[in-house]
Automatic annotation (TrEMBL):
In-chain residues carrying the UniProt-annotated modification N6-(pyridoxal phosphate)lysine: 262
Taxonomic lineage of the native organism: Bacteria, Pseudomonadati, Pseudomonadota, Alphaproteobacteria, Sphingomonadales
Name this protein carries in UniProt: Pyridoxal-dependent decarboxylase family protein
Presence of keyword Zinc: no
Organism for this UniProt entry: Aurantiacibacter atlanticus
Family label: Belongs to the group II decarboxylase family. Sphingosine-1-phosphate lyase subfamily.
PANTHER family: PTHR42735, SPHINGOSINE-1-PHOSPHATE LYASE 1
Source domain of life: Bacteria
Length: 411
């Protein structure tokens, strides 16, 4: 017999019960990676009719989700632009999930909206920008920036180095703009002499190319109808006194993308789009609606408080704390690159400019080596039709000596 819905009882699933939440945190902290994972194939293929129960499921969920994942904070983790996250962000992500603030509506997110504004106000000046907003990734930041360029300057074309991230061509396509790939030098840097006839164009310069980490000549910023700098990877270096100079010229851009879930150590999905004139950009990207108390700015509708973990990290560490971790990452990349350069069995693609080391063995194939390297130590990339291994120094806890030893074992 079907019971009628009970509309007056407290649903305990929305409140903390039996310290279950503390148990979830205990599992997170104590679960050792590499412990046997709950077998994915044992899961029911169809949505179960009756639920298994929250508390009852915690151990299996831990075995599956925690046991089945790679640890980005492992000492050998050196393969991708995905850093480990500081524990403070885990706490803030949990608080965010519990509060579920929607930044679309000021009344559901009074403090979270202010925190995002303040976070943007803290960071924008490092880039010479006057404002912006948060988005879930630089893919969206790039699209948002090119959209603003089209609305404000009427650009008809996006010109970007052939090595630019796929999101640039994708955005041009979505916006109905022509895409013009520009030639690069053999390290993947845009050739300055290629940046011509840009009166109707958005010029995209990359600060930290995804494959090789190289920085386009940022001196070109300001030479087109609109200049967008895709600083998804290397943007945070602006916070390092030692390395900020690598991105000099970025302040002449009209817009900038930075992924906070890359080198600002944030949980996904956290990124920023900055504008030199944010008032103009935001008003070009604003829409009103009957149910909206504040205009909807940018691409997203409902969105969460990704600024809270970022703000907490910046407040807890300070500029100095971010800078020292970035400096550590760059030193680790330098050390690894020096090892590659000195070992005659290995070939270095080029000096790492922003912590990305591209290399390969001389006498073995990239296939052979990557099959036996520890998981998470190196990724693969194809440059000018040729296969390379790529190490990205996004993990301040990486142990370069252990990484070098692991490489020596397989070459
Ligand atoms: C990672 C990356 C992007 C895309 O950023 P997401 O945050 O992954 O969406 C864009 N451009 C460059 C240069 C990148 O390295």
């Amino acid at each position: 017999m079907q019971s009628s819905p009970d509309i007056n009882t407290l649903d305990k699933s929305f409140a903390v019960e039996n310290d279950a939440l503390l148990e979830a945190v205990r599992l997170l902290v104590e679960h050792t990676p590499g412990a046997p994972a709950f077998a994915f194939d044992d899961l029911p293929a169809h949505l179960p009719e009756a639920g298994a129960g929250e508390r009852e499921l915690l151990p299996d969920l831990a075995a599956l989700v925690l046991g089945g994942a790679h640890r980005l904070d492992s000492e050998l983790s050196f393969a991708h632009m995905d850093p480990p996250t500081p524990w403070l962000t885990w706490a803030m992500a949990l608080w965010n999930a519990r509060l579920n603030q929607n930044l679309l509506h000021p009344e559901t997110a009074p403090i979270a909206r202010k925190i995002e504004e303040l976070t943007i106000a803290w960071l924008a000046p490092f880039f010479g920008m006057d404002g912006g907003h948060m988005v879930p990734g630089s893919t969206v930041a790039n699209l948002t920036a090119l959209w603003a360029a089209r609305e404000i300057r009427g650009i008809e074309e996006v010109a970007a180095p052939i090595t630019a991230h796929v999101s640039i061509e994708k955005s041009a396509r979505l916006l109905g703009l022509q895409f013009r790939p520009l030639p690069t030098d053999d390290q993947g840097r845009m050739l300055p002499e290629a940046a011509v006839n840009l009166e109707q164009s958005c010029l995209v310069l990359v600060a930290g190319a995804t494959s090789t980490g190289v920085i386009d000549p940022l001196i070109l910023a300001g030479s087109a109808a609109w200049t967008h700098v895709d600083a998804a990877w290397a943007g945070p270096l602006r916070l390092s006194e030692t390395h900020a100079g690598l991105l000099d010229g970025i302040e002449h851009a009209d817009s900038i993308a930075v992924s906070a879930h890359k080198w600002l150590f944030q949980p996904k999905e956290s990124a920023l789009v900055f504008f030199r004139d944010a008032t103009a950009a935001h008003s070009a990207l604003s829409f009103g609606g009957a149910y909206l108390a504040a205009p909807n700015v940018g691409l997203l509708g409902s969105h969460g408080a990704a600024a809270v973990p970022l703000f907490a990290t910046l407040w807890a560490w300070g500029r100095d704390g971010i800078a020292s971790r970035l400096d550590t990452c760059l030193a680790a990349a330098e050390k690894f690159a020096a090892f590659v350069e000195e070992d005659e069995r290995l070939e270095l693609f080029g000096r790492p400019e922003t912590g990305v080391v591209v290399w390969r063995p001389r006498d073995k194939s990239v296939d052979q080596i990557s099959a036996i390297l520890p998981v998470g130590l190196a990724s693969r990339t194809t440059i000018a039709g040729s296969e390379w291994l790529r190490c990205v120094s996004a993990n301040p806890s990486a142990d370069v000596d252990a990484i070098i030893m692991a490489v020596q074992k397989v070459i």
